[in-house]
Each structure stands twice: as structure tokens, then as C-alpha cells.
Amino acid sequence: MKTFYSKSLLSLVFTAIIAFLFVLFFVSGCKEQDPLRKGRIQIEYWELWTGFEYQAMKDLVDKFNRSQDEIYVKMLSISQIDRKILISTAGGVPPDIAGLMPGFIPQFADKNALEPLDPLMDIIGVKKEDYIDIYWQLGNYNGTQYALPSTPAVLALHYNKDILRSVGLDPENPPQTIEELDAMAEKMMVKRDELNYDRLGFIQTSPGWWNYAWVYFFGGKWFDGENITANCPENIRAFEWIESYAKKYGSRQLQNFTGGFTSPNFDSAENPFFAERLGMVFQGVWLSNFIDKYNPDMDWAITSFPSEGGRLKDSVMAECNLLVIPKGAKHRIEAAKFLGFIQKPENLQYLALKHTKFIPLKLANDIDYTDHPNPHIKEFVRLAQSENIFSVPWIPIWTEMDGEISNALQAVWLQKMTAREVLDHAQERLEDKWDEYKRIKKAIEKQ
Amino acid sequence: MTNKQKHILKVLAFLSPWIIGFIVFQLYPIASSVYYSFCYYDILRPPGFVGLDNYRSLLTDEVFLHSLIVTGIYAALAIPLSLIVSLFFAILLNQKIFGRGMFRVIYFLPSLIPMAALGVLWKWVLHGEHGILNHILRLLHIPAPNWLGSTAWATPAMVMTGIWAVGGSIVIYLAALQDVPKSLYESAEIDGAGFFGKVRHVTLPMISPVIYFNLVMTIIASLQVFVIPYIITEGGPARSTYYYALYLFDNAFRFLRMGYASAMAIILFLIIFTLTMVTTKIASKKVYYAGK
After folding, report:
1. C-beta neighbour count of A340 within 10 angstroms
2. What is the mean pLDDT of the segment spanning B158-169?
């Protein structure tokens, strides 16, 4: 059959299409470059933030890029940043600077994945004395500084004053002891039917992000610097306290209330605290951002978390966003200069205002907070300097420990095992992992 | 150079993108994984040979054994259900009904959604209190379980989520169903077969190679289930959905025990290989190949 086109024409069209696709493929990767970047050393900065938190740091990055003509910082928002830093470091192509949470510092430092900052301190231009102690310590492992804070946080008890008032409690006298907390929580409880609550006073699984924290309010800990202490008496009492909630309110009913352990409703109007269905919650300084977003009319306040028998005054937890220079970063000097720029009080203050937090410097005590968006920021600053402030267990096998603790808490919450059983079990597993870690470390040191 | 040699060179040149890709992205990682399974390796420091230590530790690791059991339970539920459901819908979508094309698109659409997005979507659908599924169950006065908050219901919830995306299998079944000669159905009708008789005696034997293929693929997918539980339950509650691939992933990328994770990967490979061989052996007697 005769065709109206020739074979050569068909080949030509085919080749043209392929060539066009190739050009499209390569051109699509070439975005217009920032003119500031030309002729400068470019450093890559990975950060875990998104949204307004990312934008605040991006403003500072832009300010830094405008402030000099030697370095250009390219900032990228990266999910699951800890894993990606490790893999890129192992591959020899890490970012020059990155954001990291404190729990990973011992693991990363122990595996030689971080650049010690001590030799770079002159370039960074900061000193320990200027920082609120806990936030300096969170970047330190075995006496070496590996990280510096960008935005610090304190976790405390947030409570809804209207709910307290509505059940005849004095909102100016929040609970000081675990026993008071339990009694107040019970008063706030409103049952809907056999399987559901309309309102609860307090539960340990909302949002369920800091399962390791509860033991500290009973004087317990998970690791004493040398040994695993998962089933110490204080920890057992803390888990029995958690178990008592499961027994009192019913595991099934509590799970119905929260929607499970991985409920997606934190950043939503369905969050029980914003929806005024939960009277008290253990949360961080950032919560005011979300309250403003989902329930700006809520009358709320904060206090340190109650402790067993009220023995621990001002007991709170410290969290912190840190900045590190991964091992093998190609431009560590330039990264240190950028890190130094971020650590300037005015820049830390800009970040703090945008994140509704405070600065990690002692200078935080002298700042005028009149225009600060978080109405309780002064109290947070005071609590950050409490002698009973604690943070994540400082151990190189933290990720394994976190998994075991979460599993233990869930088993108690669902009443699958008793507090003592789960902690004995966690102790056994963690001891095995700790022994294995020490054995391998010894073998590596011998090599 | 002889013509034959030239021909071989040409063939190799055309195959080279695949050969290079296979060596670099599959053969090398598999071989490395086998080697690392005999090492302690945290990816940041050079691997250290530990012999069979990783395999010995696995035998006494109760979480490893637990993950094998819960994966087995998941597979036991997911394999038959997804095979039956996809075949059922394929047979329905093969009927000459009004809007058949539209229905085929509707049933195929969920499988186009990325698994991670599907996970986030179902996290809300299955939410104990605000989820649409429980809302419907309550309207129908059926007790609404806490799908993701209960150890008993979490695995069925994962199976249900997986089944929602069986569109791929449905399409494969449909292709096979359209290949069944009409004359066989006509003969069966003359012999007095009804709808179910035709399905049993004509459809199922004629599409048995495709059922076998889908069975093998479903076995592999079920034993490697990862994305949905990783997004929805993160292995909980109380490790009830801590499937094999999740524990493997945690060992590799959270705990940095790459050697241990490699040993787990080798064991999973052996399990899947054995099951596939057994299935093939059984299928060789049951599967009908028209071309044989």
C-alpha cells in the first residue's frame, strides 16, 4: 500500500520529538538563578522546617546572602532530615550545615558523623557563658560541642482556664502534684456514652510524642550515663500512673478519644485541646501558634508539669532545634560563618518571634516581651532555667530506646501488660542493645 | 570480525543500558547486601566482619520473630482477599453493562494514587472518632471499631487499605477475561451451564495462568508490605502492625544496623523464593496453558 509520507520523513519527525523531549528535560532543571549567587562559594543548608517556620529561617538566609559577597547559602526544606544527613554523609556529599533535633546528637557524634565545632568557635564567635545552660548542653556530647541552638523550646503543662472555671476549679491554681493533676482531670471528664468521652481532663497519649518524658516527673530516668535504668522503681511508678489512666477511663474509650497513637489531628481543628475537649496537655512553647490558628479565643495558661508529691519544683522538658556541620562538609569554614551569623542575638530574636519561642541566650531574661505573640513567653524563659529541666535520654542508641519506650507505653495503655512487666521487658531488650553497642565500639577501637 | 561477532556486539550494545543498569542498581546492591549480612556495618564506618553473628542474633530476637508472625497474619488475610476481590470486580467489569468503561476507570483510579498519599488519606478514613468509615458504621448502627487504636483491628485495617488499590490486578484479570474465546461460553451454554457454571468451568481454567501470576505477585507484595503501615500506624499499636519490612527498615535507617538489616533481607528473600517455588510447583498441575 502506498503511504502519503516517506520513511525518511517519519524518522525525521521521530528524531525531532526525541530531541525536543531531551531539551525539555534539561531545560526544566535550569531555573533562573539568584543573581547574588554569582561568583560566591555556595553552601547548602538543610532544615526540617516547612511553612512559616521555614520562611522565618529563609528570611535570615536571604539577609545573610545580602549582607556579604563571599558566601551564598542555599536553603532546602528536607523531610526525615536525620536519615538523609546520615546517608549523604556516608556517601561523602553531606550538606554544609543542617538542622537536627537533640536526640540524634549522641548517635551522630558517636559515629563520627558530625564536625566538632570547638575548633571553629573563633569563626562562629560565641561562648558557652552566653547561653542558657541546657541549650548549650544539648549540642554537647562527651565534652565536645557538635551543635548550636537555633530555636529552643520548653515543654510544660498547657491548660484551658475556661474549662477549669466551668468545673469549679481555680485557673490561677493549676496542679502542682501528680495527685492534684489526676483529681482535676477527673473533674473535667464528661462522658458521652459507654464508649466515648465528650471531654477529658488530661491524658498521656495526646499527642504522644514524648513517651520518655513521664518518668522524669517521678524522679526516674532511662539511662544513668553508664547503665540502662528502664525498670528502676521511679519509672515503674510513672508507668503505673499511666496504667491507672487506662484502667480508670478504659483503654478502648481512650483510643476512641484520641483516634489511636498516630492520630493525624495535631495540626487541625480536631485537636482535642483546640476543640476544648481536653483540659490540659503537655506541650511546647510553639503551641501558641496553633492556638492562635485554631482557637484564638481560648483563655489558656501554662505551668510547670506536676511532679510526684510535688517534689520537683518547676519540672519541665527542654527541646531545641540545633544546627550542625556534618562530617565531610566541603565548606565548613563558610558554614561556620553562617552559623555565627544565625547566633547573633538580633537574628535569634527574629527567629524566636516568628516561631513564638524565645532565644537560647541568657539575654532572653532582659528582653522586652510586650509585643511577643506568645502571652506566656516570660514564664517559658524562667522555666528554661529551672534546675529540674530535663531533656531526651543522652545515649548513642537513642533511636532503639525510643522504639522500646513507645512500645512499652502502648502496651500499658492498651492494658496488654502491666507497668512492671513492660519495663522489665524493655530493660532486658535495651540492656542487650547497650551491650552490643559497647562490644562493637570496643571492636572498632581495636581495629 | 565475523558477521556473527558483529551481530553479538550490536545486540550487546542495544542491551547495554539494561545490562549496566542491572549490574549497577541490582546485582551490586544484592551482592553487597549478602556480604554486609556477615558484617557489622553502620554505613559511616567501614564494615567489620562478624561471621554468622547477625543470623544468630536474629534467631533470638523476639521482635524479629514477632514481625514474622504479624507479617504472616497480614499475608494470610491479604493474599486470598485481594485475589478474590480483584477477580470478582474484574468479572463484573467484564459484563456488558451500561457505563462499563466508566466503572472500569473508577475501579482502577485508586491504584493510580501514590501509596504514601493513600496512607495519609486512609489515616483519616480509619480515624476512630472522626473517620468517615466509622461515621457510616454508626449510621447503620454497626459497632465501629477503633481501627488504628486496637491491636485486633489494625491488621484488618491495613488489609482493607491495601485492597482498595487492587486496580492493577483487576486490569490484568480483565485482559485475560477478554481473551477467553466466546465459543467456549457458547458451548457451555448449550450444555446448560449458568453464570456460575461458566465462571467455574470456563473462565477460571482459561485465566488460570493470570491467577497464578497475580497470586505470586500478591505473595511477594504482602510479605514486603511497608508503605501503608509505615504511614498509617508506624508499626503500632503495641507492634501489632510491625511487619517484617518495617523492622528491616528501622534496623537499616533508624538504628543504623545495616548488617543486621541485610541479614533480614536475605532471610526474606529466601522465604519469598521458597514460597514462589512451592506455588509454582502446585500451579504446574493446576494451571492451563492453551499453547502447551
Report:
1. 18
2. 89
Structural contact between residues B260 and B58, judged by C-beta atoms closer than 8 angstroms: yes
Q: pLDDT of A66-125, one tens digit each?
A: 999 999 999 999 999 999 999 999 999 999 999 999 999 999 999 999 999 999 999 999
Nearest to A416 among B45, B57, B151 (CB): B151
Which of A90, A400, A410 minimises the CB distance to B236? A410
Residue B62 lies in a domain: yes
B4 lies in a domain? no
Shortest distance between the Cα of A399 and any Cα of chain B, in A, equals: 6
CB pair distance less than 8 Å for B127 and A265 = yes
pLDDT mean across residues, chain B: 91
The CATH H-level (homologous superfamily) assignment of domain A39-153+320-388 is Periplasmic binding protein-like II (3.40.190.10)
B15 lies in some domain: no
Which residues in A lie closer than 8 A to residue B233 (C-beta atoms)? 260-262
Q: What is the dihedral of CA A145, A150, A154, A159, to 10 degrees?
A: -170
DSSP β-bridge partners for residue A197? A191
Is residue A123 a contact partner of residue A134, using CB atoms and an 8 Å limit?
Answer: no
Q: Which residues pair with A302 in a beta bridge?
A: A158
Q: Residues in chain A whose beta carbon is closer than 8 A to a beta carbon of chain B?
A: 83, 86-87, 89-90, 107, 111-113, 196, 252, 255-265, 270, 397, 399-400, 403, 406-407, 410-411, 413-414, 416, 429, 436, 440, 443-444, 447
Distance CA B269, CA B258 (A): 16
Q: Is B250 on the interface with A (CB under 8 A)?
A: yes
* Cβ <8 Å between B40 and A407: no
Across A162-183, average pLDDT: 96
CB pairs under 8 A between A and B: 106
Residue A64 sits at φ, ψ, to 5 deg, of: -65, -45
Q: Say if the Cβ atoms of B149 and A444 lie within 8 Å.
A: no
Q: What is the pLDDT of residues A292-341, one digit of tens each?
A: 999 999 999 999 999 999 999 999 999 999 999 999 999 999 999 999 99
- The whole-number pLDDT of residue A264 equals 67
Q: Average pLDDT for residues A122-134, to the nearest whole number?
A: 96
Judge if ipTM > 0.90.
Answer: no
The nearest alpha carbon in chain A to B151 belongs to A414
Structural domain range at position B176: 55-286
**What is the full DSSP assignment across A216-257?**
GGGT--SB-SSSB-TT-HHHHHHHHHHHHHHHHH-HHHHHHH
User: Of B48, B57, B234, which is closest to A443 when you measure between CB atoms?
Assistant: B48
Look at residue B218 and tell me whether its pLDDT is greater than 80.
Answer: yes
* Mean pLDDT, chain A, integer: 92
B234 neighbourhood in chain A, CB within 8 Å:
261-262
Total domains in chain B come to 1
Whether B63 maps to a domain, the answer reads yes
- Contact list in B for residue A445 (CB cut-off 8 A) is none
pLDDT at A224 over 80: yes
Residues of B in contact with A111 (CB under 8 A): 42, 44-45, 256
Q: Give the residue carrying C-alpha cell 501558641.
A: A288
Homologous superfamily (CATH) for A155-318+391-438: Periplasmic binding protein-like II (3.40.190.10)
Every domain of chain A with CATH number 3.40.190.10 lies at: 39-153+320-388, 155-318+391-438
Q: Which residues of A touch B62 (CB under 8 A)?
A: 429
Coil, strand, or helix at residue B7?
Answer: helix
Q: Give the 3-state secondary structure of residue A24.
A: helix
CATH code for the domain of B154: 1.10.3720.10
The closest alpha carbon to B253, from B265, B241, B269, B266, belongs to B265
